[in-house]
Amino acid sequence: MSAYLLHQGISITCPHGGTGVVSPADVPVRVGGNPVLLEDATVSIAGCAFNVSGAPQPCVKVRWQAPATRVKVKGTAVLLSSSVGLCVNGPGAPQGPAQISGYQTKVSGR
């Protein structure tokens, strides 16, 4: 099943309201004027208010899973609207799926 290619212009939030910031990457392929996101894309989370028993445990980054299996840029798989962004805290513990919106709906892949 195909899904839409993700790009650097998307909006990403963690389950606790933090905002994702995609680090710019030198990717030669663009959709909608924005570089596509690759499976090794770096997304930092700012403003997450999650805590456990009063101890802050904010989401700090997104770890990507399920990239495209057939579409690659320079040998690296692209991310799709069906890819899963897992928000993790500093030590790397998963804290829930990233919410993704604002992706383009013209170019798809598998």
Describe the structure.
- This is DUF4280 domain-containing protein.
- The chain has no helices and 15 strands.
- It has 110 residues and is mostly beta strands.
- It has one domain (3-104).
- The chain has a 3-stranded antiparallel sheet with strand order 9-12-13, with no helix packed on it.
- Strand 4 and strand 5 (34-35) form a beta hairpin.
- The protein is elongated.
Radius of gyration: 14 Å
Largest sheet: 3 strands, antiparallel
H/E topology pattern:
EEEEEEEEEEEEEEE
Distance between the termini: 6 Å
> In percent terms, what proportion of residues is strand?
35-45%
Question: Could you tell me the mean pLDDT?
Answer: 96
- The count of β-strands is 15
Helix content: under 10%
Q: Which strand order does the major sheet show?
A: 9-12-13
Q: Which of globular, elongated, flat, extended, rod-shaped describes the shape?
A: elongated
Instruction: Please indicate the count of domains.
Output: 1
Give the helix/strand class: mainly beta
Supply database-style keywords.
single chain; 110 residues; mainly beta; DUF4280 domain-containing protein
Could you provide a short overview of the structure?
By secondary structure, the chain is mainly β.
Layout of secondary structure:
Elements: E1 3-4, E2 11-13, E3 19-22, E4 30-31, E5 34-35, E6 43-46, E7 51-52, E8 55-56, E9 61-65, E10 72-73, E11 76-77, E12 84-88, E13 94-97, E14 99-101, E15 108-109
Antiparallel strand pairs: 1-15, 2-14, 3-6, 4-5, 7-8, 9-12, 10-11, 12-13
